[in-house]
Amino acid sequence: MTEKRIYADNAATTAVSDVAFEAMLPYFRESYGNPSATHSYGTAAKRAVEDARKKVAESIGARINEIYFTSGGTESDNWAILAAAGLRKKKGRHIITSAVEHNAVHNTVQQLEKRGYEVTWLPVDKYGMVSPEQLEEAVREDTILISVMTANNEIGTLQPVRELAEIAGRHKVLFHTDAVQAAGHIPLDVRELGVDLMSLSAHKFHGPKGVGALYISLRTALPPILFGGGQEKGKRSGTTNVPGVVGMAAALEDAVRRMDENVRKVTALRDRLIEGVLNLPGAALTGHPVQRLPGLASFIFKDVKGGPLVAALDEAGVCASSGSACSAGAGEPSRVLKAAGIITAEDVAAPLRLSLSGYNTAEEIDEIIRRLPAALKRAASESVLAGPDNMDVD
Predict the structure, then answer these.
(1) Largest Cα–Cα distance in the chain?
(2) What is the pLDDT of residue 391?
(3) Roughly how many angstroms between the first and final C-alpha of the chain, as a whole number?
């Protein structure tokens, strides 16, 4: 394979931006103090952490004392859901979430279900969107938590979070949203949205891996789930990842500052990609045609498995993903596509997710479209003999 390699898997992870990289560097070798220490190195690190906290807060319309740093989106989701369940257990044990949540939410809620909590899994329409009316009907007196993602990681559909959170607020139910795929890519304002809890992850918006944040509104006294030295105002123990939080804040601040320009560019690239791919035989777009992430396009192709197609594209120099195509080791089709009625358990078709960033170019989009037919032909022949796809981890 001698052709130029093209990266189109930004929903899985992004390259660290120059802004974030430069901001992080001093905190690896120069200002490397522990922010819990009281000497000058420690206080310098603490100042950097609090400055980062302020930047993250301002980027999503929060107050500085509503931002808590974590190890990433998975921890933030787990903390929000498990702690909220514990906080409201005297009120009830009913939780509402959608059928298309990321595994960090889906599997955490399933664990609570095994512990005796009752869960309502909201259905979605053919675009993967939750209905506010169905949420209203699902709320009960013993409902303690509603968790619906801002943007879907497989098909890119944006949920009507403001309307859903308004329903939760009227019923005095805590509302959490996993905004991991949305932050840095679409405008987010926690006050305007009316959410109580919001999860973020730095590596989705050109920050470093292994660091994230949880927004906890001041009206929500969420207890910790990690115990130790009492960092993060006693809410999340563990030595603070100073370079990580500094890089996260720099990346998010930069993404928000350049959002209008970047959304225009990436949306144009996405639409160019969709137009080209839909000209191919057997191609169908998944997700909402308009209410979707700027840089994410997901397709299915008749009788082609996602795994062989991703492998064939990789051979052709295109880094893509089949999304969370099936349950690990079980060979089951995507529950997101099943929930939206796009596929059934018997369908061979699996998704191809192509996710773009501001680093992609129109020339790269044209190259993806040019290389895709040969990859499809190869994948179609291999799909007949291939075993179950392996699940891609987001």
Answers:
(1) 66
(2) 46
(3) 26
Q: Are 299 and 310 in contact (CB under 8 A)?
A: no
Q: Which residue has the tokens 């919001």?
A: 198
The first and second tokens of residue 274, run together, are 């969709």
pLDDT one-digit tens code per residue, 48-60 = 999 999 999 999 9
What is the rounded distance in angstroms from the CA atom of residue 327 to the CA atom of residue 3?
Answer: 33
Are residues 105 and 237 located together in one domain of the fold? yes
**Structure tokens belonging to residue 239:** 């030595």
Catalytic option among 326, 336, 356, 391 = 326
- What CA–CA distance (Å, rounded) separates 327 from 25? 39
Residue 34 predicted with pLDDT over 70: yes
**What number of H helices and E strands is found in the chain?**
13, 12
Find the CATH number of the domain harbouring 63.
3.40.640.10
Return the CA Rg of the chain. 21
Question: Is 390 domain-assigned?
Answer: no
Nearest to 309 by CA among 294, 296, 297, 319: 319
Clarify whether 319 is annotated catalytic: no
**In which domain, by residue range, is 184 found?**
18-257
